[in-house]
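Lab manual, section 2.4: Encoding a predicted structure.

Procedure: take the sequence of the chain (297 residues), apply the prediction step described in section 2.3, and record the output as structure tokens. A sample record is shown.
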Amino acid sequence: MKYGIHFGHWGNYYDVQSIEKTIGQIKQTGADSFEFFPTAAMLEGDKKGIYELRALLKEYEMEPIFTFGYPQDWDILSEDILVREKAIRYLEKAIEGIGILGGKKIGGILYGNWPADYTRPPIEPEEKEKRTQRCVKVLKRVVKTAEMYDVTLSLEIVNRFEHFLINTVEEGKSICDRVDSKYCKLLLDCFHMNIEEDDIAQSIRNAKGYIGHFHVSEPNRKVPNRCSHINWIEIGNALRETGYEETVILEPFYKFGGKQGHDMRMWRDLDTDLSVEHRILLAKQGIRYIREKFGGI
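Recorded output:
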């Protein structure tokens, strides 16, 4: 397996410094992979900008993986066809850009707006099923673009407080079965699984053949190695038992404040030093730790 880091760990540093500088810092952590949002060039189909990024990634020998989210109020589950079409086209443009870049994977809450709005209307079983049917219909359409560009969609299973559609491996498998494409898989995230699954390791085993991507962090969002009630060796063993040989991404968050801090519900800093230099050190420690626990050395 390869190991990498999510751009969210960089917080506001990612927004203000160049992507070239960020990728250079990612390289210092010992990461094989970097997960980040499709760039403006990718979303706009700017081939010159895309090829420049591809050359940069090649120079640093860094595998690109992409996370995704829709603009506010753009939702593929919306009853409003205009809203739905905007969201669909936005996702398709991201897939096209990734394909031109040579990337192979996009993950996240591809199936709806995040965080979910639980008030319009209240989510009852009938409403959830109606939106699930709409989700499957849209994904069946979008996956054709994914197949064309050889990009796998990884639907992230998240906890009940962030979305209602897919909270468990079994719910995710059901949607993948209905979409019926090898380009539609699941993103398993230990932060969310720790909340929703009865047995994290067994749920991973149950997802064999469906896992497209994998995220790790401690239950409080720190890099792995700080928490005593997560058995990382057991989780790594379970993941290897499924035959998963792709990428494991660390997705930690540390900083209180700003849009990211609000979105991730960070109400305190998780470290006294959150300089970019210390974030590099934290990421380096976390990658080394999870590589060891997952049997990568």
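Check your result against the sample. The first helix runs from residue 12 to 16.
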